[in-house]
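Researcher: Quick sanity check before group meeting.
Model: Go ahead. Protein one:
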Amino acid sequence: MQYVCRYVEAKPGEAIPWERADAAVLMDVVTGGVPRQRTEAKAVWTNDALRIRFECEDDFISAAMTRRDDPLYDEDVVEVFIDEAGAGERYMELEINPLNAVFDAKIVNDLEGNIQVDTSWDAEGLHTTAVREAGKTTYEISIPFDNFEKRPDAGTTWRWNLYRIDADPSGRRHFWAWSPTGAVDFHRSERFGALVFAASDR
């Protein structure tokens, strides 16, 4: 799978013209089927950061954690995994919950089912928001390129995946992904898709 991430002119803190970005729709992480609630994600890049937005239908909130690096994945959350090198062995994991709590970690994956999670790492200059409206939660994430080995150029390709964990009113938890992994396992990095940085289309 491939997502084309367009360049936009925006300074830190400036609003992004999200209507110009393509939508990536999340699916059931195991089957690729249609989830019970729609989740769209969009991404653009600016001179200084990768900007990501999740727009989530959301009829029920399960979230109480507020501290950085709490195990947010045990409640409602959206997640971004970014693999700059593309080998699936080292990547960034970012999570944001409806209370705007953040989990950020560096992952080492031996590709045999074993991972090491380093939560001592904090993404420098990371900015997030979580806005709750009637039946909807919208998340925005700004990840400065200082957190990567190299700032991308038009034509650069990284690997990534986007996820959402959501509890329904009965308490049943649902697991969704942009690129389904075939299991309730977000660390199947061989199933990550391509994040292609492109020039502005305008």
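Researcher: Fine. The other one?
Model: Protein two, sequence then structure:
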Amino acid sequence: MARASGAFVLEDDFARHLGHGGAVPRPLVADDRDGTVVHVTSLTKPAAPSLRIGALVARGPVMERMRAVRLVDDFFVTRPLQEAALEVLSSPSWDRHIRSLGTALRERCAVLAAAVAQEIPGATLAGLPTGGLHLWLRLPSGVDDIALTGAARQRGVAVSAGSRYFATEPPAAHLRIGFAAAAGQSELTEGVRRLGAALTDLSASEA
């Protein structure tokens, strides 16, 4: 379809190394022979937040145009970052790190889901993800996600109102809850307990 319409597909593949529940699908660019896919990925999330380096893969004329733009725009990626990325990716421990990362994310996801089921029974999980860093929680009818986000913040819990992630009117109020940045599994459980208490207080104040 992209080729027929003269368009491009931008494949934002930042989560490729964050799988934790099954086989990761092949990237679209792997089967692109016409230069219609522009593949973007990053080492920031799977390696280290301070390793601000990514990669862009494309073919044909679009690649030449992007190469020219980058030369004009920022000239080059700093050499220390390039060497750090090369060292990380070529190390024998990289595959082991990715496996360990997947195991840790899978365990944290399960702990968070179990805590949600226990502490917030009126909410619904939109399925368990097989990759990534977040759970999506559908809130009970009548709950305002932005108000709940503020109430949770007052209790020391950082969650994201789901409404800002929908391109159109959301079908219901949602929260996006991250499970990667917590210090440990006990912090995830305590965070959900506080979130449940915030929801109870908010519902009582609106009744």
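Researcher: One line on it for the slide.
Model: The mean pLDDT is 90.
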